[in-house]
Amino acid sequence: MPIKVAITDDHLIAINGIRTMLADFPEIEVTATYTTGAALLEGLQKEQPDVLLLDILLPDQSGHELAPIITRLYPDVRIVVITSLDAPAIVKSMLHYGCKGYLLKGADQATLFKAVEAAYNNEQFIEPSLKDMLLQNALGNQKRASSVPLELTRREKEVLQLIVAGDTTQEIADKLFISPRTAETHRLTLLKKLDVKNTAGLVRMAITLGLVDG
To answer: Which domains, and CATH codes, for the chain?
Structure first.
């Protein structure tokens, strides 16, 4: 039986590229593709793949929101993140949510196959370059500093860090000892200051501008 793989990415060119790369392996069968989180969750109700290749930045729900839902409802589905985000905080949070693999877009065909195979065998696979970065981060050798003169308060920075780590409004409130309403107000303020429309946009902008620590 081939390994059943589903792909979720909001860019069709990315989906087609991944599908083409996997087509060379007869032991892998791409059974479904999705472009939104809603479509993914609906599709999983009908059929579950062995391995799910999941982008983090989707138009409706982020991978941070989807991963814990999927691992809870469908524990046999192995998630491999495939994204352009390489911040240590993002990698660690997705692994914390039960993802079995983490790849950067642009990974070569052999690496993609190894990640799918490892996940199918319930083994963890992290792209080698990311492993090195995580090690450097753990040793304190990598520092991230803001490259733009953006004025964020200390509390806003704390909230942003937790949002990037994938925490919900309630979890942020609990960790910072504030009310959920206050946490949501900070989130809305961050949306305005960073000029984005949703949580996925906040994550993207925070990483792009170096506003969060690893």
So the answer is: 3-138 (3.40.50.2300), 154-208 (1.10.10.10)
